[in-house]
Amino acid sequence: MSRLSVWGGPSASVFPIGNEKVFSSIWHSRRKAHFTRKTIRSCAADFKVLTSVTSNYNNIVILDTPESRVLLLDSSNNVHSILHKGTKWTGAYWDEFASLPAIVPKGPLAIFGLGGATAAHLMLELWPSLLLVGWEIDEILIAKAREYLGLSDLEKHTQGGGVLEVHIGDVFSSSVTIPGGYAGIIVDLFSDGKVLPQLEEVTTWLEMNKMLMPNGRLMVNCGAATKELSDTSEMMQPDIPKRDDPLKLNATINALCKAFPEQVSWKKLPKSAGENYLALTGPLPDLDIWSAHLPDLLRSSVKEWRSCTPSPS
Predict the structure, then answer these.
(1) Structural domain contains residue 137
(2) What is the model's pLDDT at position 74?
(3) Using one digit for the tens of pLDDT, what is the confidence trace for 203-243?
(4) Are 71 and 185 in a shared domain?
(5) Cross-referenced InterPro entries, in alphabetical order (predicted)?
(6) Residue-number span of the structural domain to which 29 is assigned
(7) Nearest to 212 by CA among 182, 186, 187
(8) Residue 313 lies in a domain
(9) Which of residues 40, 60, 84 is at a domain's end?
(10) Do residues 224 and 265 both lie within one domain?
(11) What is the CATH number of the domain that holds 157?
C-alpha cells in the first residue's frame, strides 16, 4: 500500500503500473479527459493495485482504496469506472443515465460501452425490474470487472426480476440488434480519453436509431467541449459559459442534432460533476413529470435539459 493524494480533476491519468511512486506522482499531475473531478474524492488515500493487464483494446488497471474501486483504461489510463463501497451513487455522469428508464417504454435497455458497469449498478438499484443489455468489446475487461468490480452480482436476477445481460462485441455491428428493438440505448463510447470518431458522424446515429422500439430514446455521453490539442495530445476543456452554443463546441451533439432535427436535448454537467455534455433523443420530456418519477438526487438535475437545433453546415 502506498500513500496517494487524489486531486480533483476531470480525470486522473497514469502510466501502466510498474512503480507506485511514479504512479502516485503522475496521478498528482492529473490530466483532463471525459471523467469527472468529483468521482474520486479530494483526499489522501491508501491504494492498492488489484490488477494490471493489457488487452487488445485497453491498458486495464483496477485500484482499491478504502472508499472505492477505480478502473483505469486506455493508453493514457483515464478513469472509466468507479464503484464506491458504501453507495452506488457517483456524483458524475453515470448517475444521469439512471434517469432514462422513467421516459422510455417498458423493455430492454442497452448500454453501449459497458466498461466496469458503474451505471448498471445504480440503475438496477433504482429500477430493480429493469432488463439491461450491456455491450463491451473487451472480453478481458469484462472478466476483470466480474472479479473486482461486482459485475457478476449484476448478472444475477434481482428480487424484482431485473438483470444485466453481458455481451461481448462491436456495437457498430448488426449483432447488437434485437427483435422489437431496445426501449433505450445508453451510449458511453470512448477510446484514449476521446469520444469514438464514429459518434461524430450523422450516419452512425441514424443506424443506431433503427435499433430502438417506437418511442425509444438514446442517451449519450458526449464528452467535454474541446479546443485544439496541446503538444502532448491531451484533451483540453476550457471554461465555457452556458450561453455558448454546445453544437459548435461538441461535435457529437452537432451530429445528433443534424441526424434528428428538433428531436435532441442536451445538458452540460456542472464543474463539480465533470462538465461533460449529455444528449437525449426524442421530444423534450415534460421535465416536471420526469422529475416526479425520480429519486431526490436526480430530480433537480433533469430540469436542466434543454432543446437544441443543428448549427448551419
Answers:
(1) yes
(2) 74
(3) 999 999 999 999 999 999 999 876 433 333 233 233 444 45
(4) no
(5) Lys/N-term_MeTrsfase_sf (IPR051419), SAM-dependent_MTases_sf (IPR029063)
(6) 2-84
(7) 182
(8) no
(9) 84
(10) yes
(11) 3.40.50.150
Joined together, the cell numbers standing for residue 297 give: 438526487
Residue 195 falls inside a structural domain: yes
Do residues 132 and 108 make contact, with C-beta atoms less than 8 angstroms apart?
Answer: yes
CB 188 within 8 A of CB 115: yes
Q: What is the pLDDT of residues 163-180, one digit of tens each?
A: 999 999 999 999 999 999
| pLDDT score of 309 | 64
What span, in angstroms and rounded, lies between the C-alpha atoms of 189 and 204?
A: 13
Strands 194-195 and 131-136: unpaired
Q: pTM score, two decimals?
A: 0.82
Residue with cell 444485466: 164
* Same structural domain, 124 and 192: yes
Last residue of a domain, one of 50, 84, 118: 84
- pLDDT in the model for residue 24: 44
Rounded Cα–Cα distance for residues 180 and 140 (Å)? 30
Residue 122 sits in the same domain as residue 61: no
Residue-wise pLDDT tens digits, 270-295? 887 778 899 999 999 999 999 999 99
- pLDDT confidence of residue 34: 41
The CA distance from 253 to 196, in Å, is 13
